[in-house]
Amino acid sequence: MLLQGYLARLMKISSDVQAALTQRRAVVALESSVLAQGLPHPHNEECAWRCAAAVRERGGVAATIAIIDGDIHVGLPPALLQRLTQSGGVAMKIAARDVAVAVAKKSTGGTTVSATCEIAAAAGIAVFATGGIGGVHRGASTHFDVSPDLAAIAKSPVAVVCAGAKSVLDVAATLEQLETLGVPVIGVGTDDFPGFYTRSSGLKLEHRVENAEEAAHLFKTRRLLGQGGVIFAVPPPAETALGFDEVEHHLKDALVEAERHSVRGKAVTPFLLKQMAERLGNKTLQANLALLENNARFAAELAVECARGKQ
Ligand code: PSU
Ligand code: MN
Fold it and tell me: In what helix (H) or strand (E) does residue 257 lie, and over which residues does it extend?
């Protein structure tokens, strides 16, 4: 867990985010690995403005988190955001364990879910929106590739709004691991765990809420108990969601390709997502952008509900 006092000295909080935090208004943290590694230019720029606008429309302040020249930014000015969106893939992918390295070496990069969760918590931001979380990769029983996202969510007192786990993963094993780590996974208006590109992963959830108000009540209760994060799983919008069989079919080929190129470690997730984008074309891109925006919107509604009565 990042230490709040020390971290504050390393952080640059934008004035709008700082004002909202001081006045206890709704703030939504946004990750930036999706901008630096996840989406090609110029779609990453479209993602940034659509998510920020969705948060604003629902009465929240967006706080994109990233590390630029070693500074931890909470709320990224447009000129610095472009350093990531126009980096052509050379920006660092910063997971929780890389934060200290990136700061010490004055590096520039996008923060993944694990790093963003920990930085958001240390900055006093309770709600965080992303596309899909990382998790247990297929074949993990032999190569042990489990995303640090899961452990970071378990220990950070943050509500993580997502459209499920990335479909390239072993989703059932990811849910098992979240149970082991003590992370509640709550469906928003659904009994199914969403499948990122698809409305359902085919796996059922134990608990659901119907709206942001119910989600806020549950999350506040968890915070009162002094426990870690909660995952709120929102199905991707029906208009752009893909079919389960179609995604699985192409995924099999993408996994073979990853094996053929001996892709390992942090490169696995970006490689598989890029393969899927190439195989399914513009549809994955549209689905990805729509679900990111949709998650940002729900996260803002949740943050507004959480802030109610605090000002
Ligand atoms: N690359 C992408 N898209 C992403 C990510 C990386 O093309 O969304 C990021 C997310 O921020 C997520 C992380 O937290 O990947 C998980 O990576 P890994 O499986 O290496 O832990
Ligand atoms: Mn990994």
Answer: helix 244-260
Inter-axis angle of helices 282-307 and 268-280, nearest 10: 120
> Which residues fall inside 5 Å of ion ligand 2, going by CB?
145
Q: Is 58 helix (H, G, I), strand (E, B) or coil?
A: coil
Looking at the CA of residue 113, tell me the nearest atom of ligand 1.
14
Q: How many CA atoms lie within 13 A of 147 on its CB side?
A: 33
Measured by CA distance, the residue closest to atom 15 of ligand 1 is 112
- CATH classification for the domain delimited by 4-307, as one of 3.40.50.300, 3.40.1790.10, 3.40.50.620, 3.30.70.1560: 3.40.1790.10
Give the ligand with the smallest distance to the CA of 140: 2
Residue 248: count of CB within 10 angstroms of its CB: 13
- Decide: helix, strand or coil at residue 89: coil
Taking CA atoms only, the protein residue closest to ligand 1 atom 21 is 147
pTM of the model: 0.96
Angle at 294 between CA 203 and CA 98, to 5 degrees: 80
- Return the closest-CA partner of residue 53 out of 265, 257, 294, 221: 294
Residue 94: strand pairing partners:
111
Residue 172: Cβ within 10 Å count: 14
CB 266 within 8 A of CB 37: no
Q: How far is the CA of 17 from the centre of ligand 1 (A)?
A: 25
Distance 38 CA to ligand 1 centre (A): 7
- Rounded average pLDDT per 10-residue block, the chain, 311 residues: 65 96 97 96 97 98 98 97 94 98 98 98 97 96 96 98 94 98 98 97 98 98 96 98 94 93 92 91 94 98 93 64
